Amino acid sequence: MRGIRARDFTAAAADTASVGLSLFPLGVSFGVLVVHAGLTWWWATVFTAVIYAGSLEFLLLGLVASVTPLGQVAVTALLVNLRHVFYALSFPLSRVRPLGRVYATFALTDEAYALTAGEHARSWSGARILWMQALCQGYWVSGATLGALAGSLIPLTLHGLDFALTALFVVLTIDAWRAQRDLPAPLLAAASFALAALLAPGQVLPAAMAVFTTSLLIRYALRRRADSPVPDGHRHPVPAGAAAGGEG
Amino acid sequence: MPTPFYLAASVAVSAAITWGLRALPFAVLTPLRRSAVLRYLARQMPTGIMLILALYTLREVRPTVWADVVPTALALAAAIGLHLKTRNAVISVLGATALHVALSTFWPI
């Protein structure tokens, strides 16, 4: 049993090496910003350990610095993280044992979703998935804590560290593309983003994801019509309801 | 200045909503996983979602400011080039970020 656990941990450490290299420096820059916002250093640890949603934490820092009402904090959290509802479509939660699912859903970040989205993750055990998520959070929390401590000691800022997040998503896009070479999907995504940026500049992320999901559903329907009629019992237009959330 | 109570409440509200958004859809969507349309979505979505997230992280780049555009464009090219060439995410992320830090720190303002 112990041997299997050690193997899962080692595998997860290798799985998360690249993600860690972007989460850690990004955590450091978040920690520095926490101190710059006037908060005590350990709030960086609290934010990253308890909320654990990177882009929301960066936004929240600006909100709490200006003592924004809690209702508005709640709405922001809802809009920024609305995209996570889509991750339930493919995240292999059923492989995680029931007790572990509490943590697996809590730590279902963009990075955790991306790591499990690829072809190679099909064989991952529940323990390996949990270790992967725990390690990702470990990089993030320790980076933020160190950054906040360093930021309260040294008044120096490194500009441009936040590009690590962009580089990470670029790399994940290329990897996902290699798993599923289909040009229309990324083109639809880029067009959805442009549309969302034009029409809903305040909530680009959920709007773009809703438009993208809707366009994939339309494409699916068109394709079915083009193909011969295949009998199929599951034809409810399901996730449109979940997708519509960001669209109004 | 925010009080510790207000900060703790903000953290609790944000954490509860985030966890809810991550956990509740499983109850709704898991029984539907076998449907053909959901399998189609699960296969088609990752590339597009990652692309949308990548574009979203660039929202603070001001398209008319050279000091913003040049380091970002060069670092993006480095990330794409390195990853196509090496297929090693560690090298790609680290190399592109180091280039971006160097360029945005030393760029003549």
TrEMBL record, chain B:
Keywords for this protein: Membrane, Transmembrane, Transmembrane helix
Keyword NAD part of the UniProt annotation: no
Matches recorded under Pfam families: AzlD
InterPro entries: Brnchd-chn_aa_trnsp_AzlD (IPR008407)
Record field: transmembrane: 6-28, 40-58, 64-82, 89-107
Keyword flag Membrane: yes
UniProt name for this protein: Branched-chain amino acid transporter permease
Record organism: Microtetraspora fusca
Origin organism lineage: Bacteria, Bacillati, Actinomycetota, Actinomycetes, Streptosporangiales
